[in-house]
Amino acid sequence: MHPTEINEAISILQSEGKIKEFGVSNFMQSQIELIETAQKIAVNQIEFSLTENSAMVNGSLDAMQINAITPMCWSPIGTVFKEETAQTIRIRTVLKKLCKKHNATEDQLLLAWICKHPAKIHPVIGTTNKNRIQNAQKATKIELELEDWFELLEASQGHAVA
Ligand SMILES: NC(=O)c1ccc[n+]([C@@H]2O[C@H](COP(=O)([O-])OP(=O)(O)OC[C@H]3O[C@@H](n4cnc5c(N)ncnc54)[C@H](OP(=O)(O)O)[C@@H]3O)[C@@H](O)[C@H]2O)c1
User: Could you give the count of Cα atoms lying within 13 Å of 130 in the half-sphere of its Cβ?
Assistant: First the structure.
């Protein structure tokens, strides 16, 4: 990647009013730093969900918070409805309980779990089902308590979070 060439292209698009902001996808911190020698990055779209949350512990989300980059996340539902594993069974058991507590659906709680992270992650949902899209929007109104958030994390990890 040539940061100055990228900056040139992005500057033209911005001056022509074709784009407002510049974002990247699946970039590591070193790649972000390279591009930002010439061009500010507004958004980085990464994989993040209750079942794939390594970005929370590998420094990726911390770096985005420090550098004022908005994280978007793909596959926010993770493998919860796709796979029947010990992990997804544990998660669905906790979800079932929390659905009653918050009068919410499982997918809403999975999105609310992401939205509670201080990096202010924006989930990119994949469904094209109208009802599910409308349902997902309501997740922004759900306020998970920290205890709920950690219970879900512990269900994902399969052990207590110290
Ligand atoms: N930047 C990247 O490298 C990258 C990589 C992968 C994807 N993406 C983008 O990210 C977007 C989202 O990824 P994704 O599609 O994996 O997102 P997702 O929202 O995590 O998963 C969508 C899938 O979950 C199913 N689903 C949603 N709610 C459900 C429920 N309550 N019960 C059962 N199944 C449910 C949907 O089924 P239905 O369709 O039947 O509703 C759909 O198949 C994609 O559209 C793509 O644009 C980007």
Answer: 0
